[in-house]
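Support request from a user on the community tier.

User writes: "When I paste my structure tokens into the form, the page sometimes reloads and wipes my input. The last time it worked, I copied everything first. Here is what I submitted, just in case something in the input itself triggers the reload:"
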């Protein structure tokens, strides 16, 4: 294990020496061009590392939209009243369907005729909703 570690350290030391020698052998123009390229690469990396300016507003927008949803749910109509309206509409539809079914079946037409006579009598006597005759 120690021999392997020593061998790796020796290889790293030799690689560093070769690299330093190659850098020292470069002329000034090449060094300047490499330095400019390195600075440009670092600047591009920093530019991409910064978040977009609009991302600062994401938490505020999330809080505001949560508040709007909470207010809408709080101010929503009571479901029990909506059910009552739906139930009364259903009862009215059921009653009208029963009348249509009776007429379509042809049964109890005497009852319908008696109802018509009753309504004609009410109209003739001028019977009002308050229970008085006029």
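"...and here is what came back when it finally went through:"
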């Amino acid at each position: 294990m120690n021999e392997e570690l020593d061998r790796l350290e020796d290889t790293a030391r030799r690689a560093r020496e070769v690299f330093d020698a190659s850098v020292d052998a470069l002329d000034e123009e090449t060094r300047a061009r490499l330095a400019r390229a390195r600075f440009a690469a670092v600047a591009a990396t920093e530019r991409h590392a910064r978040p977009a300016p609009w991302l600062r507003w994401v938490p505020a927008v999330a809080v505001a939209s949560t508040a709007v949803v909470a207010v809408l749910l709080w101010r929503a109509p009571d479901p029990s009243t909506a059910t009552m309206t739906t139930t009364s509409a259903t009862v009215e539809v059921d009653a009208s369907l029963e009348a249509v079914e009776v007429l379509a079946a042809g049964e109890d037409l005497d009852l319908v005729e008696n109802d018509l006579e009753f309504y004609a009598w009410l109209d003739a006597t001028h019977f009002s909703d308050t229970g008085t005759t006029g």
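Agent notes: The reload is a front-end session timeout and is unrelated to the input. The chain has two domains: 2-65, 85-125. The chain has five helices and no strands. Escalated to web team.
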